[in-house]
């Protein structure tokens, strides 16, 4: 469900309403974003529809209602920070309502209303969210209760990238014997292809930063030696995301 479809539906339900859209397409022209936001702030617009752009710190005292469509959109991305990002985004968006004298209301539309992250976001319960998320991270040894290293392998041809990723993983597993590290992968990245480039990765996880650093020192010569023509290898320590 794209934002343009939502715009058409809002127009059908409220045919006399003045509707503006704040997304990448609508703000291509220089000054367009400022104009759209200025009209909304002055009350020239009844509905402001937007992507995540509308969540970022705007202060509209007259806004008393915020609706979030598909609130769980990011929740099931294969990234260990998906729940954290979802909670953060929903909290940011919800904060756009009720900033003036009148109380605000926020409506979340979701396919999974019983999910703990969404329940905590709806209740604005930061402590409960932390407790739930921390328990999962601790069990899986993900940051901040463990340390992570991502090795990304990129190239134009899928078969070549897959082959080189397999060779790298074999070499790294040999180096990892007896070390306090765990290798995950190789596997395609969740967003496996961007602008004609195939992307695979290997994750290395450890509960000890020292063990991870020691492994990386031993692995660097192998990583440099395994690079093939047309293949790019990148190393990311404590990646912010693995998409």
Radius of gyration: 23 Å
Query: In what range is the share of β-strand residues?
Result: 15-25%
Please tally the helical runs, counting DSSP H or I stretches of 4 or more residues.
Answer: 7
**Largest sheet geometry:** 4 strands, antiparallel
Number of strands: 8
CATH class of the largest domain: Alpha Beta
C-alpha end-to-end distance? 21 Å
Q: Give the averaged pLDDT, no decimals.
A: 85
**Level of helix content?**
25-40%
In one word, what is the shape?
Answer: elongated
The helix-strand sequence is HEHEEHEHHEHEEHE
CATH topology of the largest domain: Rossmann fold
Structure description:
- The protein is α/β, with parallel strands linked by helices and 243 residues long.
- The chain has two domains: 3-140, Rossmann fold, CATH 3.40.50.300; 147-237, Alpha-Beta Plaits.
- It contains seven helices and eight strands, in the order αβαββαβααβαββαβ.
- It has helices at residues 3-13, 32-41, 82-94, 116-123, 126-140, 158-176, 209-225, and strands spanning 19-22, 47-50, 65-68, 105-108, 147-155, 182-194, 197-206, 231-237.
- The strands form three sheets. It has a four-stranded antiparallel beta sheet. The chain has a two-stranded parallel sheet with strand order 1-2. A two-stranded parallel ribbon has the order 3-4.
- Strand 3 (65-68), helix 3 and strand 4 (105-108) form a beta-alpha-beta unit.
- Helix 3 (82-94) runs parallel beside helix 4.
- The longest helix is centred in the C-terminal third of the chain and has 19 residues, at 158-176.
- It starts with a helix and ends in a 6-residue tail after the last strand.
